[in-house]
Specification:
This protein has helices at 60-66, 78-99, 115-120, 126-132, 188-197, 204-213, 219-222, 249-255; strands spanning 8-19, 26-33, 44-45, 48-50, 104-105, 136-137, 143-149, 157-166, 180-186, 234-238, 241-245. By secondary structure, it is an alpha+beta fold. Strands 1, 2, 3, 4, 7, 8 and 9 form a seven-stranded mixed sheet that branches. A two-stranded antiparallel ribbon has the order 5-6. Helix 1 crosses helix 2 (78-99) and helix 5 (188-197) packs across helix 6. It starts with 7 loop residues before the first strand and ends in a 6-residue tail after the last helix. The mean pLDDT is 88.
């Protein structure tokens, strides 16, 4: 009996950016996944996760405003327009759940102390939470900069849109989540150097985002989409090892110790 294909889950990741403390270049927020996590344990990642059922509730208009076409989805197709809204919602929700940064506006911008926990526990959906707090999603703050699809053969597969956003004034990112062992702000080039030294584990998609960000000297440049189209790695079997082959494979291998995608 053949094994059924792994379902590809839609997901969103957010590259949270700020000017470097010395005003030279930029920094990006990263989190090291807890060792207890089933996926990417111990790897440094950006806030993000899979699209949740709640992300599809009351968010269809969000995709139209954010630009479904920029997510590789057809804005004239109702199902794809709804998916665009759900992906955007996942990006906003995961950022708030995982590091406490809420990309929203209106009202006084305030949320209750337990709102983050309620959202993470699925006691409330993001659209309902924002409505209750008289807030609107800051859709203009998100820029879709890249898209990766996990290769066939992996036990978990994701169709991930990478968004970039500037840290809102007055907010701070934290690591108050059980999914994270530690968090930090870092210059992209420094994160790549840590990877090369073997002190920071990076998956190919994360490495690719850092490699792109390392070329940016300003926030405007960092918010520019990647030049490459959708990246769909292929698992390459060599000498008993399996490595994801993608456009930057050789550079990735030379840079540090490869991690599964």
């Amino acid at each position: 009996m053949s094994t059924p294909p792994v379902v590809v889950k839609d997901a969103a990741t957010v590259l949270l950016l700020r000017p470097a403390r010395d005003a030279q270049g930029i920094e990006v927020f990263m989190q090291v996944r807890a060792s207890s996590m089933a996926f990417a344990a111990g790897a440094a990642v950006f806030p993000g996760g899979s699209v949740d059922a709640s992300d599809r509730e009351g968010t269809e208009a969000w995709g139209a405003i954010a630009g479904a076409d920029r997510l590789g989805l057809d804005p004239t197709n109702a199902a794809e327009r709804a998916l665009a809204g759900a992906v955007v919602s996942a990006a906003l929700r995961e950022t708030f759940e995982e590091c406490g940064v809420l990309l929203a506006e209106g009202g006084d911008g305030a949320v209750a102390p337990g709102d983050r926990d309620d959202l993470a526990a699925h006691r409330v959906g993001l659209s309902d939470l924002l409505r209750e707090r008289n807030l609107s999603p800051s859709l203009g703050a998100l820029t879709c900069v890249d898209r990766w699809i996990t290769p066939e053969g992996e036990p978990r597969r994701y169709d991930t849109r990478f968004f970039a956003a500037v840290l809102p004034e007055g907010q701070e990112a934290d690591d108050a989540t059980t999914e994270t062992a530690r968090s930090f702000w870092v210059r992209p080039a420094e994160a790549l150097e840590q990877f090369a030294q073997g002190t920071l584990a990076l998956m190919p998609p994360t490495w690719a985002q850092l490699d792109r960000l390392a070329q940016a000297s300003t926030l405007a440049e960092a918010l520019a989409p990647a030049v490459a189209e959708v990246t769909v790695p292929v698992l390459e079997h060599t000498d008993g090892t399996v490595v994801a082959h993608f456009w930057g494979t050789e550079a990735y291998r030379k840079a540090g110790k490869p991690q599964h995608s």
